What we know:
globular; 43% helix; Sufe protein. Chain: A
Amino acid sequence: MELLYEELMDHYKDPRNYGVLKDFDIKESDSNPLCGDEILFTIKLEDERIKDIKFSGAGCAISRSSDSILTEYVKGRSINEILKMSNDDFLKIYGFKPSAMRVKCALLGFIALKKAILRYLNQPIKNVP
Ligand code: FES
């Protein structure tokens, strides 16, 4: 189902899970090399599942809304399940089809999250684009 523009703007103006956790197991930042926008995740795990997650940083409407939707989606899910997701899987969950130029914006948080989990697991991140 395609995300309506109004829903996207709602996530942009009122992002869910925005902020920084005081008690976390993972803290990781990443940036979009094309624009310099940054994201910071703090994540609390329990039994290899995401118990809580927050994000912060500067980003465009697409990156901020996708980070908001991403953090809602991954709460309660296992980190292995998240690692198995492809970029296309996440773009379907995001639900808004960005232009080819803006796909990196929509994937900034998702890719950063996968890298953060891999680093936490001490696994190589070479297969994450
Ligand atoms: Fe920077 Fe979209 S323009 S993340």
